[in-house]
Specification:
two-stranded antiparallel sheet; single chain; binds flavin mononucleotide; alpha/beta; about 190 residues; five-stranded parallel sheet; 7 strands; about 40% helix; globular
């Protein structure tokens, strides 16, 4: 079973990426193959339905990689920082490049991080988008704050809050349960 975590932060080495890496470790303990597509590291161009713009080769390659991985994924995790009380435009643009065929009846976990007042509102907004894409947003979600993380000597963030470490395990277990026992398989 393959999973794809799409990270929508504008910052390379974000808190959301650190949380994603923590989750990937737990998925791997269950022999699940999970990749992180970090939109800060692999940026894609803005959706242009008219085709008037000319995106660079690297942006086009990144988008093709995202599309291929999304189509192959059995489940998703969508990760976003809190930007102005919602999820990031970067993540929305990535989702606009994808389709219902990528998400139909696949479990989707939602994670986010805020630097100001901690909020799950960005995840509530994402839940609506997942429904439009025909994905199944699982009930457990994770909304952290910058203070839930510490830095390694090289400046890399890691999830340090023990309560969120436990919640991360619950989150992973729940997604795995949805993937393994999907009653929607025949609807895909
Ligand atoms: C454009 C923008 C808007 C933001 N709006 C909010 C906000 O409404 N509420 C909040 O708590 N933090 C807000 N922040 C702060 C981010 O949530 C904070 O930088 C956080 O650490 C981002 O997480 P990340 O490291 O995973 O990207 C905003 C940051 C940016 C760049």
């Amino acid at each position: 079973m393959k999973g794809l975590i799409i990270v929508g932060s504008a910052k390379v080495g974000s808190h959301t990426t650190a949380l994603s890496q923590y989750l990937r470790g737990h998925f791997e303990e269950h022999d699940f193959d999970v990749e992180i597509f970090d939109l800060a590291e692999q940026p894609i161009h803005q959706l242009d339905v008219s085709g008037a713009s000319e995106p660079s080769e690297s942006y086009k390659n990144n988008l093709q990689t995202l599309k291929t991985k999304a189509r192959e994924a059995d489940f998703f995790v969508l990760g976003s920082p809190n930007y102005h009380g919602s999820y990031s435009g970067i993540l929305k643009n990535a989702l606009d490049h994808l389709t219902m065929d990528d998400f139909k009846m696949k479990p989707v976990g939602l994670i986010g991080n805020s630097g100001g007042i901690v909020s799950s509102e960005p995840l509530s907004h994402l839940r609506l988008i997942v429904r439009s894409l025909l994905g199944i947003a699982v009930p457990t979600q994770i909304a952290t704050h910058d203070t839930d993380y510490k830095k390694l000597d090289d400046g890399t963030y890691y999830l340090a809050n023990e309560e969120f470490q436990l919640r991360a395990r619950l989150f992973v277990d729940q997604i795995i349960s949805f993937v393994k026992n999907s009653p929607y398989e025949h609807l895909k």
